[in-house]
Design a protein that fits this description.
Length: about 350
């Protein structure tokens, strides 16, 4: 009996089985989650100048566009840390607002108050889909992630604590930013995050998704131009107390998702003392930070009252201050010696301008 054909059949079958096993080894299961490295970048550069508003002895004013040079910097108090609050949402489409999406996770970190960008990198693993990362930055007590000046229970409804009066108004500073990205495991895709902007989709290098934050506020400084006349009348700077009254509405809440103020309060009051006497004869009466829109000019209306302890020395009312996000407005005038307005708290009868307040949905 010839056994050679049987031998060849056995060898052929063995080769076929080995070949089949080799192919099976290279078939991997489809990935279900992608690594995301969310890089938080808060811009600590000083705001650039926006406008100069000059008031005269009659209560009239002129507005001038300023060169976009950097304004003065400041150093936060050593008692504080920089706090970054991040929320990651999954959305049905990149155009959706987060109230139509699902909160995936929320992280809060604190870093040194002087740390430059990137301040931190957060790691996530997420399945396929569209995502939006929102981040809010502010100051908190050192190494303490709890709310301090801003209440951040939800980042589309950040609220300023209007009853909290920081020792230094610079500590009202804040920043906000967001980033859209997608994850797709279809064949031919990158299997990693893709950063989505209005005009393009860019694969994220090394899975890094950057969130860039800039100030959510506009800053103004109020300068008195009549210091010499004030001193010649026998007054002292050291005895002064300045009261700023925001008339009508002023922003007190912010939506990081839409990058717009979304809460407003009436008749907010701030008290301070003069802080600087520069060599040009002017005096910095007050400064403040106001939550501002990202794509348009906002305006606030204020009264300035000057006190020596409890005695009123002067008032200058109905000062209109234009604001732009992440910019500084310079306001100058004879606020120490020239009385403008009735002195009543409220809208004066001789105020003819119109202030329109839009409250987004």
């Amino acid at each position: 009996m010839n056994k050679r054909p049987t031998y060849h059949l056995l060898v052929s079958a063995l080769v076929f089985l080995l070949s089949s096993c080799d192919k099976t080894i290279h078939v991997y299961p489809k990935e279900t989650e992608a690594l995301i490295l969310l890089e938080l970048n808060t811009d600590r550069t000083a705001p650039r100048y926006y406008k100069e508003v000059t008031y005269d002895h009659n209560g009239d004013h002129e507005e001038t566009e300023l060169e976009t040079n950097l304004s003065d910097t400041y150093t936060p108090d050593e008692r504080l840390s920089m706090r970054l609050v991040t929320e990651l949402y999954k959305l049905d489409s990149p155009e959706d607002r987060i109230d139509k999406g699902t909160l995936v996770t929320r992280r809060i970190v604190t870093v040194d108050r002087l740390m430059e960008a990137p301040q931190d990198t957060l790691q996530f693993k997420v399945p396929e889909g569209f995502y939006r990362a929102l981040t809010w930055a502010d100051y908190s007590l050192k190494d303490n992630p709890d709310d301090w000046h801003f209440k951040t229970e939800k980042l589309d409804a950040v609220q300023a604590d209007v009853d909290h009066k920081p020792r230094d108004n610079h500590h009202k500073n804040s920043a906000a930013g967001s980033c859209n990205f997608s994850v797709d495991f279809d064949p031919g895709k990158s299997n990693g995050p893709v950063i989505l902007s209005e005009t393009r989709a860019t694969p994220a290098t090394d899975h890094v998704v950057p969130v860039h934050l800039e100030r959510a506020v506009g800053r103004f400084r109020l300068w008195a131009t009549d210091l010499e006349d004030f001193l010649n009348s026998g007054n002292r700077i050291e005895d002064l107390r300045i009261q700023i009254i925001y008339k009508q509405y002023v922003s007190a809440g912010y939506n990081v998702d839409t990058e717009t103020p979304n809460r407003f309060v009436q008749m907010q009051t701030m008290e301070t003392t003069p802080t600087t006497v520069p060599g040009d004869g002017s005096l910095l009466l007050a400064y403040d930070y106001v939550l501002a829109s990202s794509d348009k000019e906002d305006r606030v209306l204020v009264d300035v009252f000057v006190y020596d302890e409890d005695k009123e020395l002067n008032h200058y009312q109905n000062i209109t201050i234009p604001l732009w996000r992440n910019r500084e407005t310079v306001v100058k005038g004879p606020f120490l010696t020239r009385k403008i307005g009735s002195g009543d708290i409220g809208i004066d009868d001789d105020f003819d301008d119109e202030i329109v307040v839009e409250i987004p949905d």
